[in-house]
Design brief:
33% strand; single chain; Ribosomal Protein S8, Chain: A, domain 1; three-stranded antiparallel sheet; globular; 132 residues; Dna Ligase, domain 1; 2 domains; alpha+beta
């Protein structure tokens, strides 16, 4: 697995595991990935996130979430800002994803936030990904 774009790798692992109907997935990550997983859990896109190990690297166990029909709760995980093309946005230009049905995860000066939290706090930053 490539480790040049850890956020892209994280989103791909979640996408593939949900399509394969896995109950959980383990991912070697960082504090950034841990915070992204916590935001996804808080917004209801994944069931749970636990830190399994911290040494030598953080290992996360992420429990995936499915609806009554057995379909994944999210249909799309899309990387917006990439290592080759960074995307930054001002607080007053943050748009809603699918009219508010989805979320954007934004890296701000106060840490990672969803688009709703960033608009409320009037903080712009780098748009990492969109989920719906």
């Amino acid at each position: 697995m490539s480790r040049h774009d850890i956020i892209g790798d994280f989103l791909t692992v979640l996408r593939n595991a949900s399509r394969a109907r896995k109950d959980f997935v383990e991912f070697k990550g960082s504090n950034l990935i841990l915070r992204m997983a916590e935001l996804l859990r808080d917004e209801g896109y994944i069931a749970d996130v636990k830190v399994v190990a911290r040494r030598p690297q953080i290992v996360l166990r992420i429990s995936l979430k499915y609806d009554e029909a057995g379909e994944p709760v999210f249909s799309t995980l899309r990387r917006v800002s990439r290592p080759s093309r960074r995307v930054y946005i001002d607080a007053d230009r943050i748009r809603k994803v699918l009219g508010g049905l989805g979320i954007s995860i934004i890296s701000t000066s106060q840490g990672l936030m969803t688009d709703r939290q960033a608009r409320r706090a009037r903080r712009g930053g780098e748009i990492l990904c969109e989920v719906w």
